[in-house]
Design brief:
The chain is of the alpha+beta class and 417 residues long. The protein contains 15 helices and 9 strands. Strands 4-5-6-9 form a 4-stranded mixed beta sheet, with no helix packed on it. Strands 1-2-3 form a 3-stranded antiparallel beta sheet, with helices on one face.
């Protein structure tokens, strides 16, 4: 039987399989002495060598790219100085969570690539060349925002001359690797009902709370008892916490919301393993809990654990509305996964509030924690702050959850097809 083309560098010497390293020309004797195993080893080594070659070529191109801009005097402000100042005085003070981590990674990458270059000598053509060689389209957008902010901050604090052109604003992408667009199917009413009925008690509480409030996953998992005051649950969406005027929401504590709480008690405290648990939603006491530095309490539900448990429940559902996605659940590529995630419950919640209670777009926008009341509340991203961002917005509209689960929910404002 034909075995196909032999991997590059693989050869037999005195009965032993060896592989020639293309980086230095030296031979490496392989652990596997059968041909099929040697082929697999050689193939893996070739892939590793190719990655190393690409890395070396990239370093050479970056060196050639940044060579004309290397600082000639000590007075010149280097890229490292400006971007480290940006990290300490912008990212650490304003950004939070995943956004902050992503910005730190990007700035560290720029510092590593040409930290010694004179920041004032980096012109728009330089940034265009750098981004087009090293960024996909979506990463380019993030890089551009950070570079623009660095120029503005450096000028405001006097690191560079105020008359220096902000090259970040003029950056235009020339080439980029096109990324597949993320597409998620919206969650249907049938999918939510089946998921809810198939879930354990602790997960049911969270699903119900999400549909009633339209809150994000992270905001729900981090809810604490001390956020309940005077018959309201006070929530500041995590995506706006670092801003000067964050969104502030207060949800009227109704009987439906009380039923979502641990042991149906939102006003009390939960004691687990002799420790007071501050979180409203937590792992059940009988579940094994591994210690983690990220946890404030052993029973806290972390995002990774929650996503994994939710996926396990979905994978075991045999109903066609979920089983049609079975081949996608463990797919590695983002473009191969378009099944509804927990975040799609926000969209379902908004649609039900409009169809059942007649809520308008501006009411949903405020409920979602978005800034601009003119954007589409079911598909929007984020926009600039407005005058209504300083006060607590009261939320007291909820659908009848029990009627929804039983399929008896009235929708007087639904559009006729």
């Amino acid at each position: 039987m034909a075995r196909g083309k032999k991997p590059k560098g693989l050869g037999l010497n005195r009965g032993y399989w060896r592989w020639r390293n293309p980086l230095n020309g030296k031979y490496i004797y392989l652990q596997s002495q059968d041909e099929s195993g040697a082929r697999r080893e050689a193939k893996a080594l070739n892939e590793e060598a190719e990655r190393e070659l690409e890395r070396r070529e990239r370093e050479k191109s970056l060196e050639a790219l940044s060579k004309p801009y290397v600082s000639a005097t000590r007075k010149a402000k280097s890229v490292k100085t400006v971007f480290q100042y940006y990290q300490k005085n912008h990212i650490e003070k304003i950004d939070t969570g995943a956004t902050a981590k992503d910005k730190i990674n990007i700035t560290d990458r720029i510092i590593k690539d040409f930290g010694d270059a004179d920041f004032t000598k980096l012109d728009t053509p330089f940034w265009n060349d750098y981004l087009s060689q090293n960024c996909s389209y979506h990463r380019y957008q993030k890089y551009k925002v950070i570079i623009t902010q660095c120029y503005s901050l450096a000028k405001n604090v006097g690191l560079i001359d105020k008359n220096t052109e902000n090259c970040g604003k003029e950056i235009e992408i020339i080439q980029y690797k096109k990324e597949p667009e993320k597409v998620r199917d919206p969650m249907t009413e049938e999918q939510f009902i089946v998921l809810y009925k198939s879930s354990p008690v602790w997960l049911k509480r969270i699903l119900k709370f999400a549909l009633l409030t339209s809150l994000r996953q992270g905001d729900i998992l981090n809810l604490k008892f001390d956020q309940i005051k005077d018959g309201y649950i006070y929530v500041v969406p995590s995506k706006t916490k670092g801003l000067k005027r964050p969104r502030q929401l207060k949800f009227k504590l109704t009987e439906q919301l009380e039923d979502c709480g641990a042991d149906k008690r939102l006003e009390g405290k939960v004691i687990i393993d002799s420790e007071v648990c501050p979180f409203i939603f937590y792992q059940d006491a009988y579940e094994k809990r591994l210690p983690s530095k990220l946890k404030e309490h052993p029973a806290q539900i972390l995002k990774r654990y929650f996503v994994e448990q939710l996926l396990k429940v979905i994978e075991n559902i045999s109903a066609p509305c979920w089983s049609q996605y079975r081949s996608q659940f463990r797919a590695k590529k983002e473009e191969d996964r378009n099944y509804p995630t927990f975040h799609e419950i926000r969209g379902l919640s908004g649609r039900l509030l409009q169809e059942c209670l007649g809520l308008e777009d501006i009411q949903l926008t405020r409920r979602y924690g978005h800034y601009d009341p003119t954007i589409n509340p079911t598909t929007s991203k984020y926009s600039s702050p407005n005058k209504i961002a300083n006060k607590w917005h009261e939320i007291n509209e909820y659908i009848d959850f029990d009627a929804f689960i039983e399929g008896n929910l009235e929708k007087p404002f639904a559009y006729e097809e």
